[in-house]
Fold:
Amino acid sequence: MRTVTLNNGVEMPILGFGVFQIADPAECERAVTDALAAGYRAIDTAASYLNEEAVGRAIAGSGVPRHQLFVTTKLWVQDVAQGKARAAFERSLQRLGLDHLDLYLIHQPYGDVYGAWRDMEKIADEKLSRAIGVSNFHADRLIDLIDHNDVVPAVNQVETHPFHQRVADQKLMAGEGVQIESWGPFAEGRNNLFTNPTLTAIARAHGKSVGQLVLRWLVQRGVVVIPKTVRPERMAENLDVFDFTLTDHELAEIATLDRGASQFFDHRDPHMVRALSARTLDI
Structure:
């Protein structure tokens, strides 16, 4: 598996497996088990997905040595505060059945981000997480965090797909030493992504599916990506994206699909800020 090197020297697989919206414990455990068997070595979960225990069971039963895995989870808004972040981290570790993480992210840019980040800096210093980072931070929030703290986030996981390509954001992150990571690479099928004429034609030219094309487009840009599926055949298909290269002309065609805005919701929308901040987890 191809990797990217984070700003602290840690190697991270460029293609991993995400478990967002796999809420049923048995289904999640089965999906992660199948993904590990298929060859995935990066697994992305979050406290708010309510499936860390299922992920942990799959890891424990997989037989894959821990040092070969790259496990990410995330801190939910209710615990984004100094002291609370450390306790939430330890609960996530317990649910996962691990003695360390590879990447720990602040899931949303709300709450006492600075206080939580100080906890996370200590977590990283104690080698309890090999890297720390953020998710859903727009450029202003990311730069604010960088300029007023000691440790630069290793990763910023943000919505990135053909309809919201984040080219300027990726350039800014690269300049600051932050690795961009995509969530929602297929835009959850919005705007008829899987039947889009431009994507379909390019995929057909390479003998690939639209899903494979999108993943190749992301990894070719140097974007880490964590597609989700519960189907073993699709897991294998999603891994099979390293045997072709998109031309400059094809990249330019895909660039025309960019709508320059979220296809889900804007994390800067006051109503969404309040809604996400009000969501509490019984964990």
User: Anything to note?
Assistant: The longest helix spans residues 25-38.
